[in-house]
Amino acid sequence: MFSIYFLIFSILFLSGTIDSTLKVNKIPVDTVDITGFTKCSLTTKWFKKQLAPFLEEFKTIPSRLNITYHPLSIGSKIVNGSKIAVCENGELECKLNKLQCCSKKYMNSSDPINLLKTLECIQGSNLETAIACLPEANSKNLIEKCSDTDEGEQLLISEPFPHNASIVLPWIKINGVRSFEATKNFKKVICELNSAKDAKPCLKI
């Protein structure tokens, strides 16, 4: 009988210990979601004035910081039986948006800094310049093929619209909450996050 009680106690004790250990070891991740149009002048200005200097200074993205850019369409329509994206600033914007979407899918996810630099390079460009932004690797052909087919259309259409009402772009959410300050001083906002505050560039502030 004692052995049974001891076994039950041991199981309960160990399960509690394991649960506590999992809670202690659960490391929070900060999420940054940025939404914009590739041919929107305000979005492009933010990319050039805020994101590009940030990427140049940081070199690598902290492991607990997840920065995601969402190229945005404003809807879709049916053409010859196929659903295609509709973009605020016309067909070229849709093509550039699809290049960004396909880059997100086919570039190495373990190297987020190069992906973000590629998206920044495409932003606001003409089509020829944007294609030149793509990495010279196997992924380049995959990205181009993706952007020219239904795959790219569906990736663009599936990007989440960040708000139900009209929005001012770029629309930036930090851990699910819209941050207007991040449109003005992106580095400062990022450096206030637990995931990035100890990064070398943040220690200079």
From TrEMBL:
<dbReference type="Pfam" id="PF03227">
    <property type="entry name" value="GILT"/>
</dbReference>
<keyword id="KW-0732">Signal</keyword>
<dbReference type="GO" id="GO:0016671">
    <property type="term" value="F:oxidoreductase activity, acting on a sulfur group of donors, disulfide as acceptor"/>
</dbReference>
<protein>
    <recommendedName>
        <fullName>DUF19 domain-containing protein</fullName>
    </recommendedName>
</protein>
<comment type="similarity">
    <text>Belongs to the GILT family.</text>
</comment>
<keyword id="KW-0325">Glycoprotein</keyword>
<dbReference type="InterPro" id="IPR004911">
    <property type="entry name" value="Interferon-induced_GILT"/>
</dbReference>
<feature type="signal peptide">
    <location>
        <begin position="1"/>
        <end position="20"/>
    </location>
</feature>
